[in-house]
Amino acid sequence: MTDRTDPPDLVVRGGTVVDATGSRRADVRVSGGAVVELGEGLDVPAGTTVLDAGGCVVAPGLVDLHTHLREPGREEAETVATGTRAAALGGFTAVVAMPNTDPPLDSAESVRNVYALADGALAQVAVAGAITVGRAGERLAPMAELAALGVRLFTDDGDGVQSAGLMRRALQYATAAWPAGAPCTRGSGRAASGSPASPPRPRRSWWRGTSRWRGRRVGGSTSCTCRPPAPSTWSAGPGPRACR
Length: 244
Description:
Order of helices and strands: EEEEEEHEHEHEHEEE
Helix content: 10-25%
Shape: elongated
CATH superfamily of the largest domain: Metal-dependent hydrolases
Structural class: alpha/beta
Strand content: 25-35%
Number of strands: 12
Number of domains: 2
């Protein structure tokens, strides 16, 4: 991965700060890559860049847990570069790439390829691995190998696992492999036999804690589990007018 240096010291001036406590007009000061101060009329240290965010929303970086980057295989529709650029423009600093690519993200090689494409992207990219090989619903994908690369969410996105037995094995495997907190796995709403499937419910909302600005690093974890960390980045996303 490319080394990323901390951005220069910055004061985001006059925006509408939105977090878990609500919204208010405030300035945000960033130093050493972390939010260090939040309030009205902040002093601007020498050498600090000032960004006029009047009319804009300033918030912790958003995370899109379901993104179709389409690469590899359907680059005419989207690529990792174009998808992350659009995400960053909308205030999303991290996205999770779905595995319904061609070939699907069902192997260590395909996941490494997406990570390589995401190196230097404008938003962090995490990968959701396929539950089954080829998203065909017949054999489990090598979940342990994918997990070793950082995959923490599995889905046959768009093609639900129709075998209740296979889906059960996927859930059992995930529970055994990650006893501290099994990754989310997603199958079909109903098994092939017509009996209701029972996928695990996501844990309590991960949005709590987004108001803890002080000391928050800019550029946080990209792991996406049933209980992801609160967003650890901020962005000046477009409000009534786009920030320039």
